[in-house]
Amino acid sequence: KRVDELVLERDGLERTSAMMERELQTICDSFAKLEEQNTSKVWDLSAKEQAVGRVVAEKCKYEEKFIGLNKEREAQRMANQALRNQNAKQLEHIKAIEERDRALAQQLSLVGGEAEKATQAWQATQTQLQEAQQRSQELEDQARGLEEQVRIATQALNERTESLGAVEHDRRRVQEALDAANRQLGEAEKTADQTGLAKLCADYKTLLKCTTCQTNFKSHVLLRCMHVFCKQCIDSRIETRQRKCPTCSEPFGAKDVRQIYL
User: Fold this and answer.
1) Helices vs strands, H then E, count in the chain
2) What number of other Cβ atoms are within 10 A of residue 60's Cβ?
3) What span, in angstroms and rounded, lies between the C-alpha atoms of 148 and 179?
4) Do the bridges between strand 228-229 and strand 257-259 make them parallel or antiparallel, or are there none, so unpaired?
5) What's the pTM?
6) CB under 8 Å to 186, separation ≥6 — which residues?
7) Checking phi first, is residue 214 left (phi over 0); if not, alpha (psi -120 to 50) or beta?
């Protein structure tokens, strides 16, 4: 029985010891938290003291600015007073100028009547001048029209003269070629036999035939290159827009074609 009591007492002491240990641990934790709070408050107090120092420095700075602004305000007040005095003098000067302007206005009103009359006379002169300029412009336009007609007529005459000269030149060349062929034919008739004469006639027929179709005789010349072809071949090239010489490929137009007479 005594042993059981001792065991029970031991168990109670162990529970009490465990409870006291837990309370001690709780007290230690609370003490640590308190220490941390104290440390944090100390740092906060230091920061607040630094902030107070900055505020005091800014206050001193603003006080200096306030003093400077007071000085500037006083200087501005004095400058405003000087400007008021100057404005008063300028107002007096302006009144004198206005009186002088009124006198000048009276003089201008007298001169205005004369200027109005002069303006009317000038306007009448300008009207007459404009009418004269308009008439002169019409005459110049007529003169330019006549000059243009004369130029066109002169140009047409020159083109016609050049065309006639070219045709005459071509005619002379063809006539000379024909005379030469006739002379050669006469000489061939005198000196060649019947076989040679037939061959010579065949050669002359070949010369007189169109080199493109070898069927029709040559009847038209191209003034650009002076090559001669039949009318059908030239018309065919003009219609198909192949307007180049079959021999030398020189471009030509419908106006460059002339008829020759053999």
Assistant:
1) 3, 3
2) 10
3) 46
4) unpaired
5) 0.28
6) none
7) left
Closest CA to 227 of 245, 244, 251: 245
Q: Which amino acid is at 238?
A: I
Amino acid of residue 183: R
**188-236 tens-digit pLDDT:** 666 655 666 778 877 788 888 898 998 888 999 999 899 999 999 999 9
Contact 236, 256 (CB under 8 A): no
Range 63-89 average pLDDT? 83
Nearest of 165, 159, 176, 170 to residue 258 by alpha carbon: 170
What's the pLDDT band for 109 if we cut at 50, 70, 90?
A: confident
Mark residue 61 as left, alpha or beta (left: phi above 0; alpha: psi -120 to 50; beta: remaining): alpha
Helix axes 194-208, 2-191, angle to 10 degrees: 140
Q: How far apart are alpha carbons 254 and 52 in whole angstroms?
A: 111
List the end-to-end C-alpha distance of the chain, in Å, as a whole number: 175
Two tokens at 178?
A: 């024909």
Distance CA 256, CA 162 (A): 12
Query: 209 has which bridge partners?
Result: 217
Whether 183 and 201 have beta carbons less than 8 Å apart is answered as no
